Amino acid sequence: MNYQWYPGHMTKAKRMMQENIKLIDLVIELVDARIPLSSRNPDIDELGKNKARLILLNKADLADDVCNKEWIAYFKKRGFHVLEINAKAGSGIKGVQGAVREACREKIERDRRKGIVNRPVRAIVVGIPNVGKSTFINSIAGKACTKTGNKPGVTKGKQWIRLNRELELLDTPGILWPRFDNQEVGRNLAFIGSMNDEILQKTELTIDLIGCLMINYKKELAARYQFPEEAETPLQVYEHICESRKCYKKGGEIDYEKGALLLLDDFRSGRIGRITLERPEESA
Fold this sequence. Notes:
The longest helix is centred in the last third of the chain and has 15 residues, at 202-216. The two termini are 27 Å apart. Helix content is 42%, strand content 12%. A hairpin with a 4-residue loop joins strand 5 (159-162) and strand 6 (167-171). It is α/β, with parallel strands linked by helices. Strands 3-2-1-4-6-5 form a 6-stranded mixed sheet, with helices on both faces. Residues 147-156 have low confidence and may be disordered.
């Protein structure tokens, strides 16, 4: 399967971000803790050049805790300020303001020397679709400032949110990039729901996901679905899951589409366990 999804509003969103970057002191980039590299748009580094940077490992509760620590060390080594958060539950959000102050220490000191006080840090919040940007903004603001949804492409335009005297946030639509050089990146994004599921071959995607989980998380997969030891291939495991969860069409034929939706939802919601699909040593 060729993974690609780049609706028209993303081109407009990228142009809007380029136009507003001159107003910005800090780029706050949300990534999905389960795929920290695949969920980074390579355009963001160019866009945020010469700006203070803060990476938030969102949905950290769904990712492997050991891997979260490894990714924090990985990004810090490359000069980023980093926090792990769960925007939906609010965990880690209290540490964001302090991380912003630390990331923008030079700017704040420069303003103070010039006698400029109470001038807020202006931060742009960026990330791929469905990574949790709007949920993060609502969580840090303590109220519903932006529209959220459990699917990509909910935010379509820009919006400034004044949080307090210290911080203003610019919310932006999630943007992917026009072509994935590595189809593994596209596949990982499809796994977590950052593409429109309607354009995907979900049966093939699910077999690929099972194959990935069998490498490092076979124990968690077996605990969830109780498949027999003789089920050694991703297809055999998939068929067992469909049968054990009564995914049948009329006439008793296996309903692979229903089984795919069930397994993808289990993975995305964390019911299989805390899983990270990328490791820093693979990216070194």
